[in-house]
Amino acid sequence: MERAPWSAAGVDSFMRDGLRFDVRDTPVAGAPGTAPAAVLLHGFPQDASAYDAVAPRLAAVGVRTLVPDQRGYSPGARPRGRRAYVVTELVADVLALLDAAGLERAHVVGHDWGGSVAWAFAARHPGRTASVTVLSTPHPAAMAAALRRGDQARRSSYMLWFQVPRLPELTMLRRDAAGLRRSLRRAGLEDGAADRYADRLLEPGALTSALAWYRAIPFSRGSGGGRIRVPTTYVTGRRDPFFSRDAVAATPRYVAAPFTHVELDADHWLPEHRPDDVAAAVLAHVR
Fold first, then answer.
1. For domain 13-152+222-286, which CATH number applies: 2.40.50.140, 3.40.50.300, 3.90.550.10, 3.40.50.1820?
2. What is the pLDDT of residue 166?
3. What pTM did the predictor assign?
4. Strand partners, 64
């Protein structure tokens, strides 16, 4: 795919293999061709709105932000089958976004599953990655090692439940999705975010597509665990219930570049709850 020239109007979507991805592009004033750019990748069960408080903070100091609704979340990008959600496909989506936006390189930011994509993208495409800032999610190799010891297996037990066909969807959507909304609130999200994300997952095929990221794990083994050779910041929450301290502590072993670990007194939802800290971590690379 040829990279498009930068447009002052930005991009509101891009295409790849017949799939249409929605994008929130926040251009900045001044010389558009020289403005640094950041791609912000959400996780489960979020969408691009997870970064609604982060993107304006970056744009205010001259950083163009592109926030896609990723595969399975964009209404026009919900292919069927687990294999459509392997890590190599998710990484290729980000590469297509950079090409569509006319970007040679970008600062890549990812939270939760978006963090896994960010790690894999930086490992596979260091020439297209100005820096990587990962929120919450350990490096895939560190995560795999931690699953074999300590309490990471317990923390990740829900992933096994998500592997079961159809039953998780039926359970989470019982009684007109009231259970889904409650589960998101119990996970620490405020009512507004929980309702917003639940509404997205209630769209036709959305929840099954979002769960397909987990169901594709058996086909993605080894595809996202390469060593990182670009400047890296890893931001974690001390009260994150999903990732063990073993997985967090092992992550620097897989980074062969300048590395910073920022530990916050925070929970899992860093883009929503700690936007100032997230923006600061990205800007440290930009500056």
1. 3.40.50.1820
2. 85
3. 0.94
4. 37
